Amino acid sequence: MLGDIGFDFLRVFYNTHVHSTPTLSYSLNFKGIPFKTVWIEYPDIEKTLKDLGIAACATKPDGKTPLYTLPAIYDPVTKTGLTESFAIAKYLDEKYPDKPTLVPRGTETLQKAYIDATMSKSDALWQFVLPKTTWSLNERSEEHFRRGKQTLSKTMEEMYPQGEKRKEEWKRLEEDFGQIDKWFGKEDILVMGEEGKVCFADFAFAGFVIWIRIVFGKESEEWKDVSGWQSGRWGRMIQTLEKYE
Amino acid sequence: MLGDIGFDFLRVFYNTHVHSTPTLSYSLNFKGIPFKTVWIEYPDIEKTLKDLGIAACATKPDGKTPLYTLPAIYDPVTKTGLTESFAIAKYLDEKYPDKPTLVPRGTETLQKAYIDATMSKSDALWQFVLPKTTWSLNERSEEHFRRGKQTLSKTMEEMYPQGEKRKEEWKRLEEDFGQIDKWFGKEDILVMGEEGKVCFADFAFAGFVIWIRIVFGKESEEWKDVSGWQSGRWGRMIQTLEKYE
Questions:
Q1: How many CB atoms lie within 10 A of CB A191?
Q2: Per-residue H/E/C for chain A
Q3: Which of A9, A29, A89, A122 has the most crowded Cβ, counting Cβ within 10 A?
Q4: What is the mean pLDDT of residues A3-12?
């Protein structure tokens, strides 16, 4: 087991390439826990996690076969490995109580609902970022990634919107982000608002939004659009959290 | 103006009949603010609110015509009337700072997201409760209510699921509630969990769930089902909040 060879630092296991949203690295930097990142190709995820004794947190579409997902962590201090970023956030809060808290008492259900709601509202995003992600992978990971997405009714190439359809779907994404915007007070940047407290839900949604910047690039028209939507709310959000990137 | 004739107590304006979910009366009882309920027939809502100088908080599907909705309140102490239950909750917190808080600092965005998410997940519910509500109204309100729902693609009678379809849709509602259940810690009954604190989001979702009890009846199979789903979570939730009903 990799665990036995002794890690000096907490390890974060991420997919190679652009598919990696930085929710977990945001969270670890916020807590001030030193870590090293291990980049893993898609076909190697299952073996790596099994070798570390990290349990799968989901099942494949058949409902039975364990589905091994990233990100995951392995903490050499407690010899514990786990996966799924909310579970990891709770683990970190529990094991490192002296560090800033990602999920303050009484906010767990609310944060989970917020994350679920922001993902549901952003469903127009997948058709843009999934194909872009696929095309950026190396051959080995790409083949594996496409196979994992075979339950989708379309290929990545069919999914990626073109021409008028692209304009419409991009507009739809802007409107959907507008629904999320309405939950915020006008001056608020963070989910917990005026308190100025950062919480895990901020990192979860920011990690999702920044995916657009990752796949299209910092200078792209797409990122400029998103940064400017809703009076610049999302641009300001990413900027405020930049110190944890 | 009704306001000028002098109310002794805060007034809550509710639709007559079963359409009234108790979110606001829960909230006022929780805060311990005495109030009297004024029951209004659907066709009288607009005039009543206009007479009290209460602004509409939404527009009709044309995007322009003001849409006057209930519940609303009129507070004789501040001579203020307003509508939309989250806005009312915030008003009550602000004007009655010595009373228990419905929207604790830092939870507004999270509570709004929770309410939006629970409503979105429960979309299978409308086809049951909207027709049942319609059929319980008196003639004058029923006609008005049906007219207001003409933008829906189906009549109430077409919408109400029958036979196998009914079983499937009821099952779908149970599964959708199961998604909400997953956000809660196993022992939690309230949204803010272990803290034991009640907040507005509890009243909003409970007000929605209890609609099932209102339209089908306390002894109905439907209410027994819902109370028992997810190891009795929703039954326990309603029971815990009963003292504020």
A1: 31
A2: CHHHHCCCCEEEEEECHHHCCCHHHHHHHHHCCCEEEEEECHHHHHHHHHHCCCCCCEECCCCCCEECCCCEEEECCCCEEEECHHHHHHHHHHHCCCCCCCCCCCCHHHHHHHHHHHHHHCHHHHHHHHHHHHHHCCHHHHHHHHHHCCCCCCCHHHHCCCHHHHHHHHHHHHHHHHHHHCCCCCCCCCCCHHHCCCCHHHHHHHHHHHHHHHHHCCCCHHHHHHHHHHHHHHHHHHHHCHHHC
A3: A89
A4: 66
Range A125-129 average pLDDT: 93
Check A109 against B188: CB less than 8 A apart: yes
How many CB contacts within 8 angstroms connect chain A with chain B? Answer: 84
Our CA-based measurement puts residue A55 at a distance from the nearest CA of chain B, in whole angstroms, of 19
Which residues in chain B have Cβ-Cβ distances shorter than 8 Å to A185? 108-109
B19 pLDDT more than 60: no
CA distance A124 to chain B (A): 16
* Partner-chain residue, chosen from B109, B117, B194, that has the shortest CB–CB distance to A184: B109
Residue A14 in contact with residue A70, Cβ under 8 Å?
yes
Predicted confidence at residue A6, as pLDDT, reads 56
Asked if B105 lies within 8 A of A197 by C-beta distance, the reply is no
Q: Collect all residues with Cβ–Cβ distance below 8 Å to A44 and sequence separation of at least 6.
A: none
Range B108-244 has CATH code 1.20.1050.10: yes
Tell me which chain A residue has its CA closest to the CA of residue B183: A109
Q: Which residues of B touch A (CB under 8 A)?
A: 105-114, 116-118, 120, 179-180, 182-185, 188, 191-195, 197, 201
Question: What does the pLDDT read at residue B2?
Answer: 45
Give the predicted TM-score (pTM) of the model.
0.91
pLDDT of residue A151 exceeding 90, the answer is no
pLDDT tens-digit readout, A164-220: 999 999 999 999 999 999 999 988 999 998 656 899 999 999 999 999 999 999 999
- Reported ipTM: the value is 0.89
Q: Across the interface, do A114 and B114 touch by the CB < 8 Å criterion? A: yes
Domain borders along chain A are: 10-95, 108-244
Q: For the structural domain made of B10-95, what CATH number should be given? A: 3.40.30.10
Q: Sorting pLDDT into bands at 50, 70 and 90, what band is B117?
A: very high
The reply to whether residue A111 touches residue B112, judged by beta carbons under 8 angstroms, is no
